[in-house]
Design brief:
Elements: H1 2-37, H2 52-85
Transmembrane segments: 12-32, 52-73
Pfam families: DUF4235
Protein name: DUF4235 domain-containing protein
């Protein structure tokens, strides 16, 4: 029963961490795009003035940044849970 209660108690923490990770990843992507392209605004897939290469490059960079941030937050959350509870989360 304690395991189920622990998982339930961690749900709001995980949701909050996920939202924060998304915000951080968005900021990192905007800054990375400025460095890569010199442009303040990343291209939108529906923008008729942007080419395929630029749009797909931005999408690949954004995906990579989001994946790295997500993995770091997930790993950090698992380590934190392990330190708090003594068990590795499922």
């Amino acid at each position: 029963m304690a395991g189920k209660l622990g998982k339930l108690a961690l749900k709001p923490v995980n949701v909050g961490l996920g939202l924060a990770a998304g915000a951080v990843a968005g900021i990192l992507f905007k800054e990375a795009w400025k460095l890569v392209s010199g442009d303040d605004d990343a291209p939108d897939a529906g923008d008729p003035d942007r080419g395929w290469v630029e749009i797909l490059t931005a999408a690949a960079l954004q995906g990579a940044i989001f994946a790295v941030v997500k993995a770091a937050v997930h790993r950090g959350g698992a380590i934190g849970t392990h330190k708090l509870t003594g068990t590795w989360p499922d």
